[in-house]
Amino acid sequence: MRKSRLKLKIFHLVSLLGFLLLLLNSSYLISFGTPSLFYISNVFIHILIGVGLIPSFILLICRLFSHMKYTGKIATVLLIIGIISGLWLMVVGATTPNRWLLISHIMVTTIGSILLILHFIWHRPSFIRHSIAKMAGFTLAISLVFPVVVKIYQNYVPESDYLVQNPIHDIPTSMHEEGGGTNSPFFPSSAE
Where, by residue number, does the polypeptide cross the bilayer (predicted)? Predict the structure, then answer.
């Protein structure tokens, strides 16, 4: 009996740590949208962790849902919607026509995650110690603050590759001097 209880505690702890890792991964994904191998790898990691946590989420909810307060039940419903939208995104892809689905997934899972962690902090189940609840709260805070700080930084310190540099010398004074002048194959295009 004691051994099975220990295994259950370890299972819950590993699931919670996976959930917190998913929060940090999500924080990175929303902060940077670079077309790099590292970013795409993080998208795949996000999918793997998310799908991997579905069974443990189902077991946890089956065990705790009847004992949850209102906050936990709302969080559960939102996270179920988030799981469904995430699975749907895996099928249809996060392309421009499906951007609404991606934004819905982000919003629903963010609100659900906030409510679930707050529920676990306020109404701690037996498998969550005070130190783990504090770690969950700290991870949540980092996951929420990091994207905001990154967006503010990107706004005030833009990358030099994205800045338009206007010429200092030889500035065209009329449309006839634009695009290489009147002898250019593109000559009338600026004026039209």
Answer: 39-62, 74-94, 100-123, 135-153
Give the span between the Cα atoms of 188 and 192, in whole angstroms. Answer: 6
On whether the CB atoms of residues 73 and 118 are closer than 8 A, the answer is: no
d(CA 67, CA 80): 18
Cα–Cα distances in Å, from 183 out to 38, 66, 169, 175, 188? 46, 79, 20, 13, 10
Return the domain boundaries, the chain: 2-157, 167-192
Q: What is the pLDDT along the chain (192 residues), one digit of tens a residue?
A: 677 777 877 887 888 889 999 999 999 999 998 889 999 999 999 999 999 999 999 988 888 888 888 999 999 999 999 999 999 999 999 889 999 999 999 999 999 999 999 988 888 776 677 788 888 889 999 999 999 999 999 888 888 777 777 777 777 777 777 767 777 777 766 555
Q: Are 116 and 72 in contact (CB under 8 A)?
A: yes
Look at the pTM and tell me if it is higher than 0.90.
no
How far is residue 54's CA from residue 80's CA, in Å, rounded to a whole number? 9
